Known about the structure:
83% helix; single chain; 3 helical TM bundles of succinate and fumarate reductases; mainly alpha; 123 residues; elongated
Amino acid sequence: MRYLTARKRAEGKGASRTGTQHHWHMTVSAVALAFLIPVWIFVFGHALGQPLDGVRATFARPFPAILTGLVLVVGMRHFAMGAQMMIEDYARGTARKMLVIFAMSLSAVIVACGLFALVKIAL
């Protein structure tokens, strides 16, 4: 005799109506990063190895500053959603909730620190 109902056996294994939305957001951010990262590497590579005044001059222009900000925001959002999907696949219970909160918080802190550093360099 089974003590678990069909609903209890299926809980956590089926569609929760967010998988398609996560997949769509991951696809869009991956395509955006596929265009942003090569251009950003070129801009960053140009600034790499220059003295502080040269780096400030590079990131004081609007295009490199906006591009760097976009790479930070889109990249960390992509990281957070990917980490959330991975955590939801492999962790259960309270650990799952805590790990998702940690991943989201980590990405938010990295974005905040990166944008603050970008503003300090650019201004």
